[in-house]
Each structure stands twice: as C-alpha cells, then as structure tokens.
Design brief:
mainly alpha; 8 helices; 0% strand
Amino acid sequence: MIKAKGMILALPAAILAVSAGTAEAHVGHGSAMGFTTGLLHPLSGIDHLLAMVMVGAFAVQLGGRALYLIPGAFIAAMVLGGILGASQVSMGPVELAIALSVFALGLAVACRINPALPAAAAIVAFFGVFHGHAHGTEMPDMAAGLAYGAGFVASTASLHAAGLAIGRLTGELKGRLGNAVLRAIGAAVTLAGASLIAGAV
C-alpha cells in the first residue's frame, strides 16, 4: 500500500518534468533555472504555500484514502495546469482563482467541512490546475526547465506532507485541543485568503 501511494505521488512529478521543457520564463519573475529553483519557487509565494499546506491538512481531516488521493489529485491537476500554462492556453483570472483556493481550503479546515471523497478530490484538482498554470508560464524554454518542473512538483508534495504532519500532530493533542488548534490554523488561512482575494480583484 505504501509503495502504491508513493507511485501515485511520483508519477505526476515525472510527467511534469517531461512536459516542462516547452515552457518559457515569465516576464518579471526572472529565469527559473534548475531543480533547486523549482524546489524553492513554491516557497516564495504565500498564496501557493498556504494552499498546498491546507491540501494536506484537509486530507487528514477527511482521513482514510483521502490521505493520498487528495494530495495526488492536486498534484496531477497541477501537472495538467503546468502543461496548459507552458502551451500559453488562457484560463482567465488565474491569480484570483489561486487566492480563492487559499480561502476555500482554509475555510474547509476551519469549519471541518467533510464532503464526499470524489467531490473533495474534484475541488482540490480544480484549484490545482490554476496553481500549475500560474507556474507553467514561468518555466524556462530549455533543458533546465525539466529539472525546474521536477523540483516544483517535489516541493509541492513536501508542502502537502507538511500539511499532513500538522493535521496529524494536532490530532494527537489531548481532548478537543487538537481540533481547536487545527481549526484556528484554518481560520487564519481563511483570513489570509480573503486578503489575497481583495488584492486580486
């Protein structure tokens, strides 16, 4: 089972790495070169960082198969979005959609919203496409773009893992304290998302 879960998360990374070579660097962001740059890139934007951590926390909240299907759905959709971005396919107000993802995922954790697994996977996949698209246009049109794409996906998976860890650690707190702490974190992210939305409109 553990091996299968690892393959689910590793497959999108391989796909994005293969597809990343056709992308161009986005004006204003500088050259995105190599695995290290791709690895660090998600950490440079608070919107991406918060959303990706919340995906992990949301997965813990749902439990069971969601622990790997929710992060897997986000990463797979992000790969698709990266391909669309690299191909210069327009998707409308991408930054607004990303801000909405921070708000919605934070709210889901804060309010302990527990949709059915297919619906939850569809929601995170929807947002994952926009996150991938935003960075697909920033990947360089050269061999280094392959490494950049692999680094970006690896970093995303690590942020999901951080969210999973936060969810599990708060769950180990005694009584209702853990639930209150995780919901407080979700509430803080929701407020951050609302601020990001205000800045995007």
